Amino acid sequence: MKYKQIPLIHHQYNAYEVSHKDFGHEHRGLIVVPNQSIKRIIVYLRGGKGRMGRVRLQRLLQFTSPNTLVIAPYYPGSNGSSGHDEFSGIDLRLTIRFIERLTEQFKVYNCHVIGFSRGGVQALHTALEIQYVRSVIMYNATISYDHMYDERPDLRKTMKRVIGKPSNRYEYDKRNPLLRMSEMKPTLILHGTLDRMVTVDQALVLKNMLYEANIEHQFIEYSMWHSPYPYQYEEVKGDIYRWIEYFDD
């Protein structure tokens, strides 16, 4: 892996853009490394597509703590990563490999995955595929592409091009982590009641499925739109850290 330092004026952290080659692709991501010993890794999986919702350093800094390495893979086709975003196709495989490579390099096998918006599907998949992921945090998050297709008419053209219509059950089912709910890791659901991009109905569906599968979970509602206001950052961060510290090794 190659590391390129990113300017960051902060005495506790350093930031890097990381690149690696896997599955025939040049793949990149952003990481924030604490100066103190690393106890855990938080993986942030963003929403959006292409330049919309791209990973930004300021977003990662919202999840930092003195003993936490925060990492965020880019999607293929954005931020200099090659390939095409396939909505949990090659992008998911590259995400998993990015996490595996960094855990191997830093020798830390205690991970928590945050999925924001569309990144929620990626987060659920990642938790299923990587054994040392301790928990999932679904943050105003989409729970399946079927739900996204239903709620977002503005995205249907893109989804038809990338995945096909929902009648193509093979493509949608293989991308649906809800079909493996009995294997899911402990899950924290954070959702804004004012969210119109991903409605709180999806959070309630996930909550009920976790309950039926007897998976440990917690559901917290906020008076929030799809993205929080700056004054809400600390409240959300506090809820996230109370959760992950409970599941740390």
Automatic annotation (TrEMBL):
Biological process (GO) annotations? proteolysis
Q: Which SUPFAM superfamilies match?
A: alpha/beta-Hydrolases
What InterPro entries would the database entry show?
AB_hydrolase_fold (IPR029058), Peptidase_S9_cat (IPR001375)
Molecular function in Gene Ontology: serine-type peptidase activity
Q: Where is the Peptidase S9 prolyl oligopeptidase catalytic domain?
A: 109-220
- Domain of life, per UniProt, equals Bacteria
Segments spanning the bilayer are none
Name the record gives this protein: Prolyl oligopeptidase family protein
